[in-house]
Specification:
This protein has about 300 residues and is an alpha/beta fold. About 55% of the residues lie in helices and about 15% in strands. Strand 5, helix 6 and strand 6 form a beta-alpha-beta unit. The relative contact order is 0.10. It binds nicotinamide-adenine-dinucleotide (NAD).
């Protein structure tokens, strides 16, 4: 089925995702508070709208890719928001990483107006957003999911319906625990190896084919050795996610001893002025503790 697609939130992730939707042949209407981001999409063939409401009036599928719960709530339910312009039967796909509570609440409100909703957060970061190979985890009704599958495959490679509304963002919380604790574990290992004086590149080559090998190792070790901490997935975004993880876990009675330590590491990095750096910067927390830098031999 052909769709007219709207895209709101053209940041690190939203910009390449929307460019890929144009490449896949979708006609796209876009909105962002950042004019520069809008202009680069218009140059690529998108139409600029003046508000989320206008995006919704011009589209039957409206995608949001915004920082956090409060932005998504404002853009969908606020004045001149998506819901004011959305037609009956339109589908809102929120691809931001927000709390399951807010996601379910939004779905309930929009469905009362005859508008459908899916939560569809992503994993893979900026590189996979650019390549169009994101992992997309979806929550919502199966027929709604089936009707927009072609839109998802314009941005991602692995697209999975996890369950009902809220299940996509819940899977994303689990994903964020695994990714960030992986980076923390890798950081402890790298700092140990650096202080012990072994060649980090050789160690990386030696272990990457074994059980310690991972997508995190392959993505982050080269960045750390290049001392490249440009986000990517920023400390700010991941601090937000792990805060959401802890809140959600405590609400449903799940203690998370490792994630709670991770949250404190993120707060420490924030105080240290690294809030906008990539989450690979977790290594710099450990470097400070051990007074050593992880670098090429
Ligand atoms: P970003 O800060 O780069 O982009 C957010 C965009 O939203 C900006 O362009 C901003 O101007 C726009 N925006 C904010 N409020 C707005 C409003 N009221 N109306 C219109 N536009 C508004 O963030 P990002 O890194 O692209 O992340 C977006 C979402 O994707 C977040 O929920 C994040 O957790 C998730 N995510 C990010 C990554 C990553 O590696 N960066 C990976 C997976 C998931």
């Amino acid at each position: 089925m052909e769709h007219t697609v709207g895209f709101i939130g053209l940041g690190i992730m939203g910009k390449p995702m929307s460019l890929n939707l144009i490449k896949a042949g979708n006609s796209l209407t876009v909105f962002d508070l950042n004019e520069e981001a809008v202009n680069s999409l218009v140059e690529a063939g998108a139409v600029a709208a003046n508000s989320p409401k206008e995006v919704a009036e011009r589209s039957d599928v409206i995608i949001t890719m915004l920082p956090a719960s409060k932005h998504v709530k404002e853009v969908i339910l606020g004045e001149n928001g998506v819901l004011e312009g959305a037609k009956k039967g339109s589908i809102i796909i929120d691809m931001s990483s927000i709390t399951p509570d807010v996601s379910r609440e939004l779905a309930t409100v929009v469905m009362k107006k005859g508008v459908e909703m899916l939560d569809a957060p992503v994993s893979g970061g900026e590189p996979k957003a650019i390549d169009g190979t994101l992992a997309i985890m979806v929550g919502g009704k199966e027929p709604v999911f089936e009707s927009v599958k072609s839109v998802f495959y314009g941005m991602g490679k692995e697209v999975t319906l996890v369950g009902d509304n809220g299940c996509g963002v819940t899977a994303k919380l689990a994903n964020q625990i695994i990714v960030n604790l992986n980076i923390a574990a890798m950081s402890e290992a790298l700092v140990l190896a650096a202080k012990a004086g072994i060649d980090i590149e050789k160690m990386y080559q030696a272990i990457r084919g074994g059980l310690a090998g991972s997508a995190v190792l392959d993505a982050k070790v080269p960045m750390i050795l290049d001392r490249n901490f440009i986000a990517g997935g920023s400390i700010a975004i991941n601090l937000k996610d792990i805060t959401n993880v802890m809140e959600t876990a405590h609400e449903i009675g799940v203690p998370l001893p490792l994630s709670s330590q991770l949250l404190e590491i993120f707060h420490s990095l924030k105080v240290d002025g690294k809030i906008n750096d990539d989450h690979g910067s977790i290594v710099r927390y450990y470097e400070k503790l051990a007074n050593v830098e992880v670098k090429r031999g």
